[in-house]
Write a structure and sequence with these properties.
Distance between the termini: 45 Å
Radius of gyration: 21 Å
Helix content: over 70%
Order of helices and strands: HHHHEEEHHHHHHHHHH
Number of helices: 14
GO molecular function: lipid-linked peptidoglycan transporter activity; peptidoglycan glycosyltransferase activity
Number of strands: 3
Number of domains: 1
EC number: 2.4.99.28
Shape: globular
Pathway: Cell wall biogenesis; peptidoglycan biosynthesis
InterPro entries: FtsW, FtsW/RodA
Strand order of the largest sheet: 1-2-3
Structural class: mainly alpha
Subcellular location: Cell membrane
Strand content: under 5%
Oligomer: single chain
């Protein structure tokens, strides 16, 4: 056990990190492997792969994701901004590249292959985007000569445009919602409220009118008889079949005919095999992470850290909420993974990157360190 008097980097990290938050993320990682073991063999068998193909893949990427999370958690707020800027540039280049070189899957170009590994760039760019928006909003609040709000609007356009062109409206909705929440925290005026609400309404109506894919999903959600609702119907059947306590590990049957049981609908498999009680326990872990993050943000004096922690917490929570809501037919199908639970390599590593940023920003920092950080930031701004 490390002593509080130990002045090593690891010792200081251990006594300043939010160990409850770290433990909750660890629980989700373990739960992801267990639920992959429950949900993925049936899919692997249908695809002619090894029975534990997706389980082994989940473990492999978890062994990459854990060091990523822990390494990023050592960063200072200043280093967080720099890493986020680099990640945003790399992620944006890859995001645009998917439009030209990405494989088309179900009518969308969201994936790109790099050195034989399939990557979804939108997953990487999301946490970096939140950090940069928090930076711009905080600078705009501190200094009237910095057009932080305007730059944040331009940054949103830079991310949303390639997402719409893919098209990926689920991720577009997610990043836009988090961006709007950060703008609200930054104290947007009524003109901005009216303008952004109007722009959002126009965007929604345009997508519904001119993009058949969007209209089809919304119509199918509002009127199930208007289209194919096979996956959602099977998901509801899974929850009903499992009841409160589930059929038991490996005893599920509906998962065998649920095409995306290991990704988008892993929550339904949880309901069938482990019961609604297990689903509520999983929901509680997600809620704990989000509420703890928001509580830490509320107590922060540094505007950048406050906005960044709130944004990362909301990003994580909204993604989980959308996935679970789709599983119980409260939202139209979005193709959104359940953080740390759904099978997916780039998603797991990118989520670990984002949560590493969150843990880095929520570490307890002495007052002297906060002052030094602010002075360094002021010196950096003056050099510009």
């Amino acid at each position: 056990m490390m002593s509080r008097a130990e002045r090593t980097i690891a010792g200081e990290w251990w006594w300043t990190v939010d160990r409850w938050l770290l433990g909750a993320l660890g629980l989700l990682t373990v739960a992801g492997i267990v639920l992959s073991l429950a949900a993925s063999p049936a899919v692997a068998e249908r695809l002619g792969l090894g029975l534990f193909h997706f389980v082994n893949r989940q473990v492999f990427f978890a062994l990459i994701a854990i060091p990523v999370l822990l390494t990023i958690s050592f960063l200072s707020p200043r280093q967080v901004r720099r890493v986020a800027l680099l990640a945003f540039i790399v992620g944006w280049v890859m995001l645009v590249s998917t439009l030209f070189f990405g494989a088309e899957i179900k009518g969308s170009r969201r994936w790109i292959s790099i050195l034989g590994i399939t990557v979804q760039p939108s997953e990487l760019i999301k946490p970096a985007f939140v950090i940069l928006c928090a930076w711009l909003f905080s600078e705009g609040a501190r200094r009237r000569d910095v057009p932080g709000h305007l730059l944040a609007v331009l940054l949103l356009g830079l991310v949303v445009t390639p997402l719409i062109l893919q098209p990926d409206f689920g991720q577009t909705l997610l990043v836009t919602t988090v961006w709007g929440a950060l703008f609200f925290l930054a104290g947007l005026g009524w003109m901005w409220v009216v303008g952004l609400t109007g722009a959002g309404a126009v965007g929604f109506l345009t997508a519904y009118t001119f993009i058949p894919h969007v209209a089809e999903r919304i119509n199918r959600f509002l009127d199930p008889e208007s289209g194919d609702t096979y996956q959602v119907d099977r998901a509801i059947e899974s929850f009903v079949s499992g009841g409160w306590f589930g059929k038991g590990p490996g005893e599920g049957t509906v998962k065998r005919v649920l095409p995306d049981s290991h990704t988008d609908f892993v929550f339904a498999v949880t309901g069938e095999e482990f019961g609604i009680i297990a689903c509520l326990a999983l929901l509680s872990i997600f809620a704990f992470i989000v509420l703890r993050g928001l509580n830490r943000a509320r107590r922060e004096e540094d505007l950048f850290v406050r906005f960044a922690v709130a944004g990362l917490s909301m990003l994580f929570g909204l993604q989980a909420l959308i996935n679970m809501a789709v599983n119980v037919h409260l939202l139209p199908a979005k193709g959104m993974t359940l953080p740390f639970i759904s099978s997916g390599g780039s998603s797991l590593v990118s989520l670990s990157f984002g949560m590493g940023l969150l843990i880095a920003l929520t570490r307890d920092r002495p007052r002297a360190e906060l002052v030094a950080e602010e002075m360094a930031a002021q010196a950096e701004r003056s050099r510009r």
